[in-house]
Amino acid sequence: MQSYITEKIQLLQSELLRALDRNDYLAALKIRAAQKELEELLDEIEKQENAMHDAIRDAKNYYTSREAARILGLDPSNVTRKATVFHARKIGGKWYFPKDVIDEESNKTGRRAKPGRKPKNVHQSPVKGGDYR
Hints:
three-stranded antiparallel β-sheet; Multidrug-efflux Transporter Regulator, Chain: A, Domain 2; elongated; 59% helix; mainly alpha
């Protein structure tokens, strides 16, 4: 893929030079815009590959969304929804969460009661006989 894009960039470079030789500045602007888009695409592909290599190398420092959800006691969709809060990285269509951030959040939320229904008071006996004072 990268070699194909590189070849296209070089082809556009030669077309750009020909357009400038003909004094066709409008065509030269269009060609340069297309060339710039391909260069940006190539840069983005390289960034994604570098990020993927970094993630593979640092896999021991990251949790997947399912692992993070299990540790935090949340649904995986809720964890991915809060990806920016947890400083997650999206690599190859999957979210990866730094272990230190998830572990710290787990320690914080471990002491708090989880939201939801209040537990029923087991010690309170129901009132019989209708004594409503």
